[in-house]
Amino acid sequence: MGSIKMKHEIPFTQFLRPNGRQVPTSVMVGDAEYAAYQKLASMGFRLTVEQLMNGIVSQCIEDPELGDFDSVLTQNNEQVKIQLSKMLLRFNCTTAEEWRNNMLDSQ
Question: pTM score, two decimals?
């Protein structure tokens, strides 16, 4: 995402310490990341972010009812946006639906 023009805003749910209070936030992304976000959002997934006690940043694609589908852990630096881009671009609707069905079957 470094040299790509950021022109789309996508929402995140940020979990804040100490009690995990949820706060809406957003990040600017390029066209490809935005298209991937639209796909995951249309399936009911959301993006979450949290800075852990050790300073590591956790970013997730989450089903609000079933939990984390995908996640990345990074230092709190330029890698946050780079890894977010990679996570968004690898999102696959078929794989996500298979995961969701497996999670529901195991309940």
Answer: 0.89
At CB < 8 A and 24+ separation, what contacts does 34-41 make? 34/8, 34/10, 36/88, 36/89, 36/91, 37/8, 37/10, 37/88, 39/91, 39/93, 40/88, 40/91, 40/96
Residues in the chain: 107
DSSP state of 30: -
**Residue 41 neighbours by CB under 8 Å, 6+ apart:** none
pLDDT digits (tens, 9 = 90+) for 30-43: 999 999 999 999 99
Residue 97: what residue type? E
Report residue 8 as tokens: 């789309």
Q: Identify the pLDDT of residue 2.
A: 47
Name 100's Cβ contacts closer than 8 Å, sequence gap at least 6: 43, 63, 66, 69
What pLDDT does 1 receive? 46
Q: What percent of the chain has pLDDT over 90?
A: 88
